């Protein structure tokens, strides 16, 4: 395959200094939401109906160049997919992809999807931060798709709330709230059997489309294009129930709370049988009685949600520093430069507990510094200095630094 030239889509900035962007406040109108306030958007559109926003981010700059995206797709700690629609045939391949494993950029109708770009790139993370008027607990990731002319992933629906932000080139979106969501059974990817779009718009760079879960949609590139999908997961009842029961089972295995969790099944009254394959009715009854005793409280639910929703995806690998600073040097450096959560870290909290990357920790009360760090994902040097006399805090932060969960230094 021909080598791809090293050019970038027009408008891609090369400088890496990224300024932090705060999310809009709930009652402040913002261009990002078509001059609605986040509070109005959440009330009128979130989980309810699509919204097209022209010029949501004026003068948008793609977080990554095409080549930058292709480099990410070549990494084995990054989830990527290639979808081709050549000669009217859908095909799906999973990455990583070496640059010469991707079709030539002159070829029509292919799409490269790269998940979790926010975990690896400051600009993508900064873009995602604009959407933090939605709770982090609902956040999935920022995905970037690159498509050649005619490229798309087929008409489908997602189980996600998604903001589809056009960052380069043009894409024609068609969508509708159809009831029939049956999928073509013969394909390696989710494509609707019947697609009945109700609306159609061409999105230019900076335009954005919000879609709630289960809205049928299809986006087709008009020329080379790049789209950022900021996705918010909406777990199914089946997923939540299954994962919660698993969490309860793990809890039972960890601490035998004296409620007989380790007790073995007993059947001292079992008579001899002539139908050995038949499930004994007494067994069903006894196990029913055991299951009826399974109980949980609100704390179990918060613990489950905090640990489950802060658990990094299986592909995530943290990068602990190769030669970590001693605690004293760490304090010196953090007092000059501040600290920030690593892009891969997820930190959630409630009134008494915090949840960092899938682990639950208890504090007598959740401390102000922790709330600030979790909500803003950084701590200024000045703020760090106010805590640096408390060795329990600096020891904990040093531990997080050694694990690669936080970094010294703010974004520029
Ligand atoms: C894409 O960006 O090509 C697909 C995104 C989506 O439809 O969810
Ligand atoms: Co979609």
TrEMBL record:
Keyword entries, A-Z: Dioxygenase, Iron, Metal-binding, Oxidoreductase, Ribonucleoprotein, Ribosomal protein
Highest taxon, organism lineage: Bacteria
Pfam entry (one): JmjC_2
Class of enzymatic activity (EC top level): oxidoreductase
One cellular-component annotation, GO: ribosome
GO molecular-function term, one example from the UniProt record: 2-oxoglutarate-dependent dioxygenase activity
InterPro entries, alphabetized: JmjC_dom, NO66-like, ROXA-like_wH
PROSITE patterns with a match to the protein in the record: JMJC
Domain JmjC: 123-249
Cofactor: Fe(2+)
EC number(s) reported in the record: 1.14.11.47
Annotated stretches, region: Disordered: 1-31
PANTHER family, per database record: MINA53 MYC INDUCED NUCLEAR ANTIGEN (PTHR13096), RIBOSOMAL OXYGENASE 1 (PTHR13096:SF8)
Protein name in the entry: 50S ribosomal protein L16 3-hydroxylase
UniProt organism field: Paraburkholderia saeva
Gene name as annotated: roxA
